[in-house]
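Hello,

Our lab assistant flagged a job as stuck in the queue for most of the afternoon. It eventually completed. Since we weren't sure the result was trustworthy after the delay, we are filing this so someone can double-check. Below is the sequence as submitted and the structure that was eventually returned. Let us know if re-running is recommended.
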Amino acid sequence: MLFKEKKWLILRKFNKCFRYIDYLLTLDNDNFMEKWKTKIYPSELSLISDDKSDQDVNFLDLHLEIKNQVLSYSLFDKRDNFNFPIVNFPNLDGNIPTSQSYNVFTSQLIRYARGCLHVQDFYDRVKILTIKLMNQAFKLCHLQKTYSKFLINRHVILAKYGPNIETHLSKIIT
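-- returned structure --
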């Protein structure tokens, strides 16, 4: 309809809208979604925003924030706000292969490096994960070895944190 009517201004406002299953993110939309949502989605579907503001939102596992017209991102996990413990990683007290379990640590390090724009966010996530894994019978010496391999093998995704990142990151796991 809008395309046929050549309503390019309105269509451009939806150029930065993203949907994943039941999650919807609208960037630089100037509240056009609010006006047009009943024409886009059926009336049975209610779109409810649980964001704090249009400058500070959570989308999937990212926290997006705009300050001084600069987009910043970090990881978001709604489980961090639960008031009960979550077991979401292997416990080495069980009967599971140890060597493969340490790959969970590597995969999370990669996820954190990709999902955290600022090095402090990365530091904080790694510290929390290290403590959690040690409480689940992971050995500090094996975590340190895994971490060292991560620094060597994945240095490209760490480059955004600056040239001295390996020195600083080695202080996280002690």
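-- support follow-up --
The delay was a queue issue, not a problem with the job. The result is valid. The two ends are 60 Å apart (CA to CA). Helices lie at 8-13, 32-40, 98-115, 119-134, 140-153, 155-158, 165-169.
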